[in-house]
Amino acid sequence: MSFPPALLELLVLCLGLALLLVESFTEKQDRTLLAYIGMVGLGVIFLILQLLPPGPTGMASYVFDPVAIFFKKFVVLTTIIVLIMSVDYATTIQRFVPGISSQAGLGEFFAIPILTCAGMMWMASAIDFILIFVSLELVTISFYVLVAFMRRNASSLEAGVKYLILSAFSTGFFAYGAAWIFGVTGNTNLVRIQQVLPALGAENYSAILFGALLVLVGLGFKIAAAPFQFWVPDVYQGAPTPITAFLSVGSKAVGFIVLLRVVQAFQSLPPVGDKVVAALIILAAATLIYGNLAALPQTNLKRLLAYSSIGHAGYLLMAVAGISARDSGQAVVIYLAAYLLMTLLSFLILIIVSNYADGDEIVNFNGLSQRSPLLAFGLLVAMMSLAGVPFTAGFLGKFLVFKVAYESQQFVLLALGIITVGCGFYYYLKVVRAMYWQSAASNGATIPVSGLSFATIVLLVLFTFLLGIFPQMATGLLR
Amino acid sequence: MVQDYLPILLQVIVAIGFAGVALLASVVLGRVGRRNPTKDSAYECGMIAKGEPQPRFSVKFYLVAMLFILFDIELVFMYPWAVAYRDYIATYNAWTIFGSMFGFVFILMVGFVYAIKKGALDWKR
Amino acid sequence: MVTLNDYLLASGLLFSLGFAGVLLRRNIIVIYMALELMLNASALALVGFSRFHVRDGLPDYNAQIFVFFIITVAAAEVAVGLAIIVALFRARQTTRVEDLTSLRF
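Structure tokens for the assembled complex are given below, as produced in the milestone run.
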């Protein structure tokens, strides 16, 4: 099959642009149609990805290896589910976006995630600092627009400004670090850097370490690792909920693939590579402690999920820090797959419930098991998986991460990880308690669920269990 | 090498010196003379000054300016492309380089059409 | 003779200025200018490295391409960023960071 893989991103880009044009040329059409076109288009891209074998691309800055394919599928799937959520969220968007027609701004709300998806797909394949930088910025700048999308909502705007400032801050670090790495190695290509590094003299070590740490800081912001996590709770709480889900799943995942590739490149020079790993261990420990402890007193589910996403970044960093172990990359991939299932599941249910209850406090979930058994069960599965109960996808991910930490002999991190899992049980079960043991404040009317969301919830629940019960399915993710 | 920059340095010194002397002189001379409100008001070629010294612009001005910057800055890619074009087609496939610039301009055009259809350039609205 | 060290010193100063500006200033627009300063610092460092990293008698143009991308990306970032800041000003009549406190628990 002679389908050039680099065409995929262009197709996604054209899909997004076409939606924008359709948006601007039709005025009477129902805007949700655009979302359905987007979902179908991305579904086709997903099928093509399923068929394409990994192989050489003939480009120096673009690879199409199994990891890249996995991450491409990952972000396409995430975008499809985000679009499904956006359709459910459309009423809230309409309330907070001024315009002549009642559906003003909705078309853009469906089209921009697709452009973001193209950026993320490029990031999954990028092995050159220039391409990484540009695709990273494509993702980030589209997120600026999306986070601040609800122009009449003060907290959405505030979240947008905070995300803007801190993201641009991290971009500054990333670019400066890349400049120093270029200065020492004379290359922006990660493969070439990996080849050049061992030949460098000892006088260059401090400069290359400086560059590497700056890049690490820049990426630390993107993946929400402590101590660069302070933007996360505010931005996640203020942004439109589908965008929060997109940020916490898509943006974080592509941050991790870039991190993996960069850290891998520096392993060819042990004096520097070891220090980078040491920095990662510190980041992982801080992230684990902060994310899990700060989540304990939360009463708002959206904010709780924000802290939980910081905590999960900690477990993922544990796997990256164990890069000397053989299965490090695989652990990251499987953990992320599990993370996608359970996080999107909880956000989808959060959107449906908060649409109905007009709030995303945990109190709003009181007595959900009587009002809508399906939603309550879905959220129960998501919370169990996030906490790491056996026979769910989350358990498998955590197990593999701990295995990697054990093999690379990071026992302090391992101990921290096991303790923080205990913390996790407390705050995730708080939600379950509200749903099953508290009675509803208002009348017990059932919550309407659209057919598409219903099917998505069922599928996500199903895969959460499948991945947990048949771990060999997960290894198939990396063919 | 450094000597080459000497004239620039001299020019900078002269410019700063002249500005400083002129400002100082006006302050010093201003102390001497008698003052009244008419003398203290801003001099605008004999007209009576009215309005604020920094008038406010319509926000549409900034919108157009922002769009201008966005489209203007893209020229930075076209110039090296035009310079490299002849050398490139001598050795490689001409459609690659032509197609990539075509795609680039196409994306810009989509943005432009979108801006027009959304009324971003509509001054009166 | 201007050496690579001079360029790196200047870019380091620019970066630190931008960094300090982001941390110390309280006006969002000024913070945004400081952020641009940080990006320009990396552009200057890249041009400096490119000028002194000679390949076949020519400067290494890879870095200068990177600079082009940094410039254009910064322009796009500014356009979107200023639009968001203007929207915030219209909604809240403020551009001071102390006033952005509706999202605290």
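Chain A has a mean pLDDT of 90. The radius of gyration of chain A is 22 Å. Further analysis is deferred to the final report.
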